[in-house]
Amino acid sequence: MSGWARALYSVLMTLGQPLLRRKLARRGRQEPGYREAVDERFGHYHQPPEMASELVWVHAVSLGETRTAAVLLKALRAQHPALRLLLTHGTATGREEGRALLQSIGRPGDVQVWQPWDSPMAVKRFFSHFKPRLGLLMETELWPNTVAESKRRGMPLVLVNGRLSAKSLNQAHRWAALALPAYGALSAVYAQTQADAERFCQLGAPVAGVFGNLKFDATPDAALLTKGRVWRETLARPVLMFASSREGEEDDFLKQISAFAQAGRSQSAMNSVANPLPIAFQALIVPRHPQRFDEVAALVVQHGLRVSRRSSWQGSPADSEAAMAAEVWLGDSLGEMALYYGLGDAALLGGSFAPLGGQNLIEAAACGCPVVMGPHTFNFTEAAELAEAEGAALRVEGMAQAVQAGLGLINDQAALGKAVNAGLAFAAQNQGAMARTATALQAFL
Fold first, then answer.
1. Hey, what CATH topology would domain 2-213+432-441 get?
2. What is the mean pLDDT of each run of 10 residues along the chain (445 residues)?
3. Active site residue ranges
4. Rounded Cα distance, 19 and 445, in Å
5. Which residue from 88, 214, 384, 445 has the fewest beta carbons nearer than 10 Å?
6. Whole-structure pTM value
């Protein structure tokens, strides 16, 4: 049964290649990175084959996975200076982050290309060209033909920092004829939590350890974090941040901000006093996806609010009249989350107010920025529960309660200080996955 399922899947993936090209062209109009080296996705490479031997292949699909991979790869590079890397991605932001990573820790002979589309021929060309000796998949990425081809060639394939939500488990069971052979063909799975490990075992995956989350071992950019904190000290009002916001959530957030702004203007009019700051706090939105920066800026204006974009600041927002007059700041830059967390007094967790599973809250905790999260955190269940139990995060039912909770926190210095310290302790106490993972990989290296 599974053979027929993968055969049908392979036909569909092959027939879907023209659709992928059109999708990439469409995405490329917003993010030019998607137009770069498109043929690599179909197994056509400009790197000479003689460059490709003894490579360790690391697949980090997007921005978050690439940052997580960086934690591990820096450790492996320190242990094995001659290690040569083949780094692949599926998104433009992941590729850009990977490029920066290789500029930081790269060695001659390292290679970066797009993840091959999971059609049989593209996957075979990828393996034939690069001939990797080991594959490391970050967190969740599993493609049936890629796994099958790695097994056929005898290349060990390890799922690192593995996580599997209950939702993803149910989806895998629905596609069991494809999923079970793929999970079963892995050489090892290093799970983040015991719950993840149990779910992987239900799919027949060879769980070889529960090592924790590599994200706890990531160190925030100290210079950016310091800059954000210095900027915050120059402001006359606290900053409520909406971190890694997702489509649909910003509208609910802006409704709350607009209500505060209107109330402030009404109070100002009754007092007959000019008030350049119609709300007593500053709202900061940092969208999860860069292609939505313009969309979110337009949404702010639609709500009758003024917006100032990070990209327009020459220095601190306090140095910009336009920024200080705007009710909403838009974090429209990449690679500056530590700066934003340093600037924010408290942060609402994107992806948790819609059924999207929530974004990573560990970086916020490590930066000392308390988190308010909604009900949907199934992508980071254990981390969210631990953060809540240790006082590093608050959980609320919806956006209105989140804004109220965030404002309540930043207006109570004692509670705010306690939450900041709890977040720092939470981040520090859960480190160690990097060392455990690096040690386990020695058997393959």
1. Rossmann fold (3.40.50)
2. 83 95 93 94 84 82 93 93 94 94 91 96 96 94 94 97 93 94 97 96 97 94 96 94 96 93 58 46 95 95 96 93 95 94 97 93 96 94 92 96 95 95 96 96 94
3. 65
4. 38
5. 445
6. 0.88
